[in-house]
């Protein structure tokens, strides 16, 4: 994973932790979704992003989200191995695990630097 993506991922995880510490769960989810977009194409970071989402779902006692994250933890290795990933997908159970989504412009700029 390139340095710009790793740095952006670290910022998203730090922002998610800060939001959790403040009790702002919606903001925590926002930053974990952004982290998922950044991490999606790299195997270990992709798994870590879903693991963090699962931990938050369990902390919130959100069974539906936790179940969705368990499914995604099972599917992520296949997606990474086959290269069949729904790019831009936020990784939440509220959206299809197979639906590509628009990437926020600031994250797209970081991801495009990796491709260059």
Describe the structure.
With 116 residues, this protein is mainly α. The protein has one domain. Helix content is 71%, strand content 0%. It has five helices and no strands. The protein has helices at 3-21, 25-39, 43-59, 63-82, 105-115. Helix 2 (25-39) runs antiparallel to helix 3. The longest helix has 20 residues, at 63-82. This is DUF3703 domain-containing protein. It holds the Pfam family DUF3703. InterPro entries: DUF3703.
Descriptors:
DUF3703 domain-containing protein, 71% helix, 5 helices, mainly alpha, DUF3703, globular, 116 residues
What's the β-strand tally?
Answer: 0
Number of domains: 1
What's the overall geometry?
A: globular
Number of helices: 5
The rounded distance between the terminal residues' Cα atoms is 13 Å
Poorly predicted residue ranges? none
Produce the secondary structure layout.
Elements: H1 3-21, H2 25-39, H3 43-59, H4 63-82, H5 105-115
Condensed summary:
The protein contains 5 helices and no strands.
């Amino acid at each position: 994973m390139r340095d710009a993506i790793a740095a952006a991922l670290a910022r998203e995880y730090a922002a998610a932790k800060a939001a959790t510490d403040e009790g702002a769960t919606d903001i925590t989810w926002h930053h974990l979704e952004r982290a998922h977009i950044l991490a999606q194409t790299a195997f270990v970071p992709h798994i870590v992003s879903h693991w963090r989402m699962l931990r938050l779902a369990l902390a919130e006692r959100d069974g539906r989200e936790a179940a969705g994250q368990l499914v995604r933890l099972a599917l992520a290795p296949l997606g990474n191995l086959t290269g069949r990933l729904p790019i831009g997908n936020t990784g939440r159970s509220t959206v299809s695990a197979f639906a590509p989504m628009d990437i926020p412009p600031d994250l797209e700029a970081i991801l495009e630097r990796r491709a260059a």
